[in-house]
Amino acid sequence: MYELSGSVALNYRDEGEGAPVLFVHGVGADLESWDGVLRNLCPGRRYLRYDQRGHGQSRRTPGPYTLQDLSGDAVALLDHLGVECVSVVGFSLGGLVAQAIALDHPERVQCLTLISTVAGRTPQEQIRVNERAETLAREGATRHLANAVDRWFTPEFVVAHPEVLEARRQKSLQNDPECYVAAYRVLAGSDLGDHLYRVTAPTLIMTGENDIGSNPRMSEFIHSQIAGSQLHILPRLKHSVLLEAPEQIAALIDPFLAEHCGA
């Protein structure tokens, strides 16, 4: 546990040796959401992951949060671990955090992987995510998660792996409700699309073909803004690609890291 301040303490794992890679999870999840991906990555790197403030085993930090709070947490953790430059991999809200790190601390980012994340929302997309944030705040995680299953997983995965859905549901329900809402409001209220042209790090972008909230149009927009970036639209998949298709995600990340972080 890293005690960043009186109200913020971050649970983290620091595993392996070699070129460092930082993983930033999505809203309502924790560092264990990367387990499946990490099992399929080359072991010859230093893999860093943490529970974002208010999530997992990190301290229940009162909100509201800002995107700069969350990206600042990540950079402070890197400072604590003595890591000057890192490859950053972010999923969903973690992808927003990764974007913010790359924009505000470009010298710290060796390369960037953005998975199922957001930028350049249309007014209609903004309305929908605001409605989801308000549903979570008003009715709690149970209703929010019931509505999310169809957005997150393919129908065949829902049928074949109910245990994965239940584990994800329980993980979210363990979050402090106020922290969950504070983090979700960051996801709903942040958009760095107008600034992404300034990202200079080599960037890998991917999302599910049928992801509604982090849709292919957004990933194509991110790709158009970041010069030299790579884009992959994953057939059939929806939002929760880390749980439904970790091998596929790792198969895209591994060669990208090998090319750009030297391991």
Automatic annotation (TrEMBL):
GO molecular function: hydrolase activity
Domain AB hydrolase-1: 20-246
InterPro entries: AB_hydrolase_1 (IPR000073), AB_hydrolase_fold (IPR029058), AB_hydrolase_sf (IPR050266)
Keyword Cell division on entry: no
Classification via Gene3D superfamilies: alpha/beta hydrolase
Alphabetical UniProt keywords: Hydrolase
Name listed for the protein in its UniProt record: Alpha/beta fold hydrolase
Organism of derivation: Roseovarius rhodophyticola
